[in-house]
Amino acid sequence: MEPGDAARLGRGRAARALPPRLLLLPLLPLLLGRGLRAAASASSSGAAAEDSSAMEELATEKEAEESHRQDSVSLLTFILLLTLTILTIWLFKHRRVRFLHETGLAMIYGLIVGVILRYGTPATGGHDKSVSCTQEDRAFSTLLVNVSGKFFEYTLKGEIGPGKINSVEQNDILRKVTFDPEVFFNILLPPIIFHAGYSLKKRHFFRNLGSILAYAFLGTAVSCFIIGNLMYGVVKLMKVVGQLSDKFYYTDCLFFGAIISATDPVTVLAIFNELHADVDLYALLFGESVLNDAVAIVLSSSIVAYQPAGLNTHAFDAAAFFKSVGIFLGIFSGSFTMGAVTGVVTALVTKFTKLHCFPLLETALFFLMSWSTFLLAEACGFTGVVAVLFCGITQAHYTYNNLSVESRSRTKQLFEVLHFLAENFIFSYMGLALFTFQKHVFSPVFIIGAFVAIFLGRAAHIYPLSFFLNLGRRHKIGWNFQHMMMFSGLRGAMAFALAIRDTASYARQMMFTTTLLIVFFTVWIIGGGTTPMLSWLNIRVGVDPDQDPPPNNDSFQVLQGDGPDSARGNRTKQESAWLFRLWYSFDHNYLKPILTHTGPPLTTTLPAWCGLLARCLTSPQVYDNQEPLREEDSDFILTEGDLTLTYGDSTVTANGSSGSHTASTSLEGSRRTKSSSEEVLDRALGMGDQPVSSRGTRLVFPLEDNA
């Protein structure tokens, strides 16, 4: 062993002999340095993480602020569109311009803004790389994605075709102005449909009730199947010539026939109202458009519910067909019942409470009950459009009589304003959607075929039905009326809302694009040609809405205690549809007294053993008022007693009995002042060319045969 080795060994032995604590002393600086560096590193990494988190929160806040700003810009765009539309409407009315209606004007402004947004604004957003989920066999409505330990929620927007992945819209503004279709159904459609029922001129509506029901139900079904079958032939032709790039089934064609059968002659009716066109023609068109919207939406739901058994889900199956018919009847009747019941409940609440002392609360309750009808029907699986329509009719017939004077005015004006704004908003959005909607499928063959099919379907709808209806009508639907109804088959808000509700498949996207173009054409071209068509067809204008049209028979006499007001009431009662005459007695004697403050006391109409119930349900106002309260437009409801109508060789009373030429009536109308009667008589003399002679209590209207 070398001396150096011994020395090193000694030092090693001495070191091994030292206590462990002493051995760590030389390592303390090294350990402390490493610890300090580790602590500093941990502190710096923690600070970096905090800074990163703060940056992410700041970026999130900025994105939320930017999204809020874009939402404000999109809503401001539509508000400015409506404002510009209103100002231009005033200018048109001031200049008496009738070739373009406000809805067509709103569509033009929407088109202009759509072009600006599409081609004048730069792309402000982008898409990251796509993530493949090949293990899943279906799409999820909500998806949670784990990104570096943080979970993000994504919602389903819809399917994108393989050829359109790179052309997905990257402009955030255009995405913002593309509304969810449910906005149209749950927010914009209810006030439009409710206003149609609430503002219904019931006198002329019920006088033509049978014809309106025939056009709305039978005519819409005929139009749907004719258009559907013709379009199926067009689809087969497209397949032969190679212009069909995806599946298009027969049920899709029927669905298109259902949604495009919903007419919306808003332009024509507005011109009719402004020119005071023939009231019966107005009632036929308005009544058909109101009811066939409801029929079209239920019919489209029934077609969607058509599910044949077996592998081929698009083949004809008798059991599935009758099931769809049952679904149609069930949905329509259930929706009708729900709307009527809601109106009855509102009438009872307003009758048996003192809400009329607080008009604001009364109006608010009326508004909420009416709107909730739509949502309640949709939540129960029925159709809100049908429910809210018949709710509006029921509210106008019963609840309106229980409201205070302030609430009557408020509810009329409130729903009129909401209807105006919602309808013009939808038409503005139509113009905007032509350039901002991302899933358009333009097919010239399909579009041309749709126009031809709609024309033929409307013709098969109007002319054959009018022929059969004229067999039982006293006042025939003339050829000029039929041509005008054929011409007035415009498409509008309901067809658009039904088409945009589902645009997931290739067939539905093609239907939506075609429906949009059809609405444009009918509103602009047909709506603009309404006034010349009225002149060409020799349809009378400048007619007093309270004036009855001349009959087509020889002569007409009214034996009455007073002037033309009572005469008008007699004719209205006699010439109302037979269905209404059956309903009138029950409604007047029982429902009106139960639900309103009008009508005869129930103690006089119910059996004696129901005396306690009759006294509880009869309003004290019925006993206090010598003359029952009447609605402004309810001339078809006559509460003064039986009326007598002398027509031809027989005398017919209001309840349908006949007798001799002479009869007497006891009417409260005889209490009216002489000046009021003379004013009505002067108006009748001014509006017609036929001489009218007044002899005491008898009015004789010699009328020519208008066959």
From TrEMBL:
Residues 1-33 form the signal peptide. InterPro entries: Cation/H_exchanger_CPA1 (IPR018422), Cation/H_exchanger_TM (IPR006153), NaH_exchanger (IPR004709), NHE-6/7/9 (IPR002090). Residues 85-536 form the Cation/H+ exchanger transmembrane domain. Its main location: membrane. Residues 669-682 have a biased composition (Basic and acidic residues). It is found in: Cell membrane; Recycling endosome membrane. It is a multi-pass membrane protein. Residues 651-668 have a biased composition (Polar residues). The chain crosses the membrane at residues 73-92, 104-121, 183-200, 212-234, 254-272, 284-306, 326-352, 364-397, 417-437, 444-463, 483-500, 512-537. It holds the Pfam family Na_H_Exchanger. Residues 47-66, 550-572, 651-707 are annotated as: Disordered. Keywords: Antiport, Cell membrane, Endosome, Ion transport, Membrane, Signal, Sodium, Sodium transport, Transmembrane, Transmembrane helix, Transport. NCBIfam families: b_cpa1 (TIGR00840). Belongs to the monovalent cation:proton antiporter 1 (CPA1) transporter (TC 2.A.36) family. This is Sodium/hydrogen exchanger. The gene is SLC9A7.
